[in-house]
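Dear all,

This email documents one entry for the complex benchmark we are building for the journal club exercise. For each entry we list the sequence lines for every component of the assembly. Then comes the predicted three-dimensional structure of the complex as a token string, followed by one or two observations. Please use this as the template for your own entries, and keep the labels exactly as they appear.
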Amino acid sequence: MINETYKARLSAKSVIRELAEYATARGEEIGYENVFDYSLGNPSVPTPKAYDEAVIRMHQDMDSMSLHGYSPSLGNTKVRGIVADSLKRRFGVDYETKHIFMTSGAAGALAHAIRLVTKPGDEVLTFAPFFPEYGPYVNDTGAVLKVVPARTEDFQINFEAFSSMMNEKVQAVLINSPNNPSGVVYSEETLTKLGDFLRSKEAEYGHDIFLISDEPYREIVFDGEVCPYPTKFYDNTLSCYSYSKSMSLPGERIGYIAVSPRATDADILAVICGQISRGIGHNCPSATPQMGIASVIDETADLRVYEKNRNLLYDALTDLGFTVVKPGGTFYIFPKALEEDAVAFCQKAKKYDLILVPADNFGCPGYFRMAYCIDTEKVERSIPVLKKFVETEYPDR
Amino acid sequence: MINETYKARLSAKSVIRELAEYATARGEEIGYENVFDYSLGNPSVPTPKAYDEAVIRMHQDMDSMSLHGYSPSLGNTKVRGIVADSLKRRFGVDYETKHIFMTSGAAGALAHAIRLVTKPGDEVLTFAPFFPEYGPYVNDTGAVLKVVPARTEDFQINFEAFSSMMNEKVQAVLINSPNNPSGVVYSEETLTKLGDFLRSKEAEYGHDIFLISDEPYREIVFDGEVCPYPTKFYDNTLSCYSYSKSMSLPGERIGYIAVSPRATDADILAVICGQISRGIGHNCPSATPQMGIASVIDETADLRVYEKNRNLLYDALTDLGFTVVKPGGTFYIFPKALEEDAVAFCQKAKKYDLILVPADNFGCPGYFRMAYCIDTEKVERSIPVLKKFVETEYPDR
């Protein structure tokens, strides 16, 4: 019989998807260049040329079995070693091959990480604003996602609320820095406090609490900064990564879990992930993108456009009087709407062909998200439109 | 806390994996060409050249976003259409784009199909001998796999046992034809009887019973035959396919579910699969192999070697007095061991550097599997060794 739980989801509509579909339809009407589509977080810069060249060479030179054969279920061993070395070099954490588990993007990484450190009925805490897919990512494992309210002044962690929600059933805490949707990077101070707090709770409860760190935007950080690396602040950390954003490879589904070498049972956690794979249809990520990213491991796409767009939008929004925290990374910005109901606000924006996403689903009602992974030229053209929208719809501000 | 259920699996050893590791280690000692490794079902023939050429062209000519961007969660729409057309042309079933859900190989297809038509606690029946991974594939969803004993005279379905195990809790029946490990192809007679039986049980219980048909070996059929297509015999069929074997692409993780257009809710089952994906870390299969297989949709690797090997081994085993059903397809053969304990039998074979897999895990104790996806030259060299093994260890037969 057809599973009614999954079937029932079809009637729950995705706001982002609906807006993206609207943008596409509207684009067909008036030309897509005239729709200021800030709805979707799809990378807008090309994949590094060296990646494509590496894939071409692999298909020209490698024998078929070595290229297209099964990779081990934990991932291509050589690729795992290259990832470990790169992380060690960059962050000074003593990763070895055994700590790396290759996955189908960050979604695959999270699917394994959550099952690895929770059982059905356990609680997983995350922090608003948060990526709405965390709901099914966590709840479909049988664990229960609970959301700590946002600290809206800077979108760092609201430790007061966090502390009041913490309890013995919490087996994992899920963070995302740089953050989708706020663009905020957790500071060293936040991560230090988080590590201290989790260690104290591990001692109090007498069990491990794992930090699942979702880091697909790790490389998209502005102002010459480097994103503080959560694993350095807390030993029981599973670093979940994807090359979707940094190398503009979202369709190729390639990422990994890096198990902190200082985590409990660090030497076998990747092997246990291999057991989890058996039930969720993940034998190994595709062979070609595994070898592809390994051949250009420390490269990224040209990510500078995102900083340029951030600057333009942050300045424009500030000038227009929006309350907005300056994003330290990602390609998102997360201002407060100009009326309490962000859905109504975004609805009005549509009249100006501005596609903005209300943040109710991100656990932060009253705010909206703009995904500025679009051409700078379009961002520039959108600013007078934004101004017109604000001045027309909210003249008394 | 680390999930103890998954952790406990590390102590359960995989017989196949252990044998394969032994074969590799032994190969390093005496030269791999001297180890007659019949343990692993890895395709041994190259991927069609046209596939590699298509991938190279894609990486040379396509713009980065079109090639590496997110594909929709149900799969690249154009690719789904090409798959539907190909199946329609070949099997006369009226598939359309909406009936095809692209997956990461057959493992991904089964992970979705089982969740689609069962809920935790439901029963799924399969037939011995069966692929041992069906255990975690089914049981990790919360449904319960039950195995109908084998009909050893021809490895078609044992309907008597099937009928006695059928009950209202059975929501899905999982078949695999051509079969791993027996190599047997279900006949039209078997599939007709199966369809009739399931229809009668649907009427009796008043609910749908889905047939999940795992078909990675569909294209590897011998003697000029075509594998009878289960969807033609039963409407509520989900055909789960992988290009791993037919195109020798196991590492690229590419396959699909084809929903019978005559299944209950046929038009929305692929969409529901898209909802299931959210919780199991599958956003879409990798973009490149999706487009790669679509560009060579009706090609296969040169599969003739498997038939040649089948002939050699079947004749040799028969000559040596083994009880063995002639495989109609795949690259497996499944003889009865020469003593009751197939584990002991295979252990003795190792002395002759013959790596055979005892079938206890396949739900068929007393039998063993040979995966003959190896060079014909090696099969030929193995035959005198097989003879020596039998004559030395079982002189009184």
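Observations: Chain A touches chain B through 80 residues (CB under 8 Å). Chain A has a mean pLDDT of 96.
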